[in-house]
Amino acid sequence: MANKIGTFKEEYSLLFLLFLFVNCTSVEKYNYKLEQPIAIEKLQKDVDYAQHKLEKLHPSLYKYISKEKLDGKFDSVRRVINRPMTSKEFFFLISPVIASVHQGHMIVSPVFKKSNKKDLKRFSKSGTGPLSQFDFEWVNYKLFVVKNKSKEKAIQLGAEVISINQISPQNIYNKYKETYTSDGYNTTYITRGFSKRFPTYFTNEIGIHDSLTYVLKQNDSLKSFIVKRLQPEVKTKEAVIVKTSDKKNTISKKEKRIYGYDETSKLLSKNLRFIPTDSTTAILKIRDFSKGNFHKAYHELFNKLAQKHIKTLILDVRNNPGGRVAEVVALNSYLTDKSFVMLQNAEVTSKTSLWKLGIFSKISKVSYPFVATGYPFYMLFSYLRTKKNNDGTCTYSLVGSKERKSNPNHFKGKIYVIINGGSFSASCLLASTLKANKDITFVGEETGGGFNSTVAGLLPILTLPNSKLPLRMGLMDVKTTHQTTVFGHGIYPDKEIIPTIQDKIDNKDPELEWILYDIKSKTN
User: Fold this and answer.
1) Structure confidence by residue, pLDDT tens digits, 370-415
2) For a Cys-Cys bond, which of 33, 140, 143, 208 suits 161, CB 3.0-4.6 Å?
3) Any idea what DSSP says for residue 416?
4) Which contacts (CB < 8 Å, 24+ apart) does range 51-56 have?
5) 515, 505, 524: which is closest to 147 by C-alpha?
6) Chain-centre distance of CA 42, in angstroms?
7) Contact between residue 127 and residue 232 where contact means Cβ atoms under 8 Å apart
8) Maximum distance among all alpha carbons in the chain?
9) Is the pTM of this model over 0.70?
10) Of 337, 341, 348, 334, whose CA–CA distance to 386 is shortest?
11) At CA 508, angle to CA 154 and CA 297, rounded to 5?
């Protein structure tokens, strides 16, 4: 018996070593291939593929750019491809063309090298990378540290990043600024988008590192810091420590499920807090519309508002990237006293265009049988909800395109909404709807998402066949019922307030301060 056990252990060890070898070999092969130049003919086919998919699937391709101009941009890329190029080189050619459509959800992303299982395990154990330990803000062509989660406490908030591993942020910005876009012509999202994507762009340039050398400008002098990986914190089983404001509170797993919780930021998706100096004012901060059980969350939150007899609600959707349409429709029912139709039926290119999901590229191979079983039912469901109109166009019936009643427990007091360039997608659909109510006051800056519409709904990721670049594309043109004549821009605030870097350093919130002053002055 002992010999059999020993033999089994030896066979298992050999199989495990063989698995590691195959994995490492396939990763090395993938990374090697990624660095090899791609033939001219294959790159031309990728250009044709991208253009064909846009023309076939994108419902509002020529809203912000004419067909002639877009065709000309694709032709220009074809002329430039006169030699073999790597996937990375091709990315900088094709991505500005996709961005010129001015639909913020649609983007071509770089292809990154893969890490083998051994390295991934090591990264996981060794903790947070040296880029992820900071939050950055791009202002006036400079990059600043606005949050420091590293052990280097000598790094001050508001420190200007001069270079990282001898590469300046300006170099990264100049290289990537044409590779992404906002919805339409506004510029507020561009700076917010770069602040958020900077770590991704920088990683694309130098790869993953265990330590980075930062040169920062603090107090008018340059200082150098070596930032290493940050060991992960030990998690407790009983509860999770969550930051609901500036303080740390303990929250149960049940609350975590209801209100949504982000493991990286350690913040709740939906957070209600009350002003200590004003018992009749509350702030509802919503960081996204994608996490938590929104039905239970809003039911509980608005019950609390009613129980505490809150007269003024401040809805904060700054830097909210969007999420579920069903959630913003549900939230709007708590913010109005009338029945409403929030959205028009979404425009699509055909009755079958929503089948082009590219869903199998997003899931593991183990899930293929389960997804394949349910996929025919999805196809039938989407086909029946898509209507072909007399003029030849096709529209899809959305959750928000049907009449909804005001929730019996809707808020009855004064509402303020705080927005900025990071407010995007579904958060703009909500803001656009609320803008129809003249009694609601908007504070902040123009949103990054559009006022009248956003092309999203379903966002399949299509892979260009030869360069392997992922192309994400929206398949539905989702329009609000409340429209503006200002073309190609977001929701404008009634009171424009743009925080400075010094505000960030001093932990000030000028938008909120203005609102509280306005409430006080009107009360007096």
Assistant:
1) 666 766 766 777 778 888 899 889 999 999 999 999 999 999 999 9
2) 143
3) E
4) 53/462, 53/471, 53/473, 54/98, 54/101, 54/473, 56/349, 56/353
5) 505
6) 31
7) yes
8) 89
9) yes
10) 348
11) 105
